[in-house]
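Minutes, project check-in
Item: structure for the 173-residue chain
Input as provided by the requester:
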Amino acid sequence: QPRRITGKELNLIQGSPDWLAARTKYFTASEANAMMGESKYQSRSALLKQKATGISVEVDAATQARFDNGHATEAACRPFAEEVIGAELYPVVAIDDSEKFLASSDGVASQDGAITWLPIGWEHKALNASLVELVKAGTVPDSHKWQLVHQCMVFGFEKILFSVSDGTRENHH
């Protein structure tokens, strides 16, 4: 059933300087795993210190390369995810009604060209053998679960397609 997402949509492009600046003002979906103590990249206490001081760790070249690969495989995989969902997917950034939480969805489903959003999201991760095995088994690991829960809270998603791929149809799981 088409309806508007519940969060307040922000006119931001993921990865842009304005998006990076906005992320400092809110608790974000990508930080949710650290909030819950389930992140292998950041501890809960390091996240709290970052939020309290506004000082974040600079992204090194290896991490940036991982981010760039993730964005490239996400873009290449989008058409395959659209086939699975049966709707077009648009990246959207939004905050919740309390204006405390921000989420950047890799794809919000729309059947009318981004006018009305369906309560279905898409989250993409770059190919990783352990993630593939979990996805094939129908499981989302705890290290990613809280990001999806956060997105459901902000966007009002009823479900999220969680994909892992290298950007090819053969390796889209």
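Outcome recorded: The longest strand covers residues 101-110.
No further action items on this chain.
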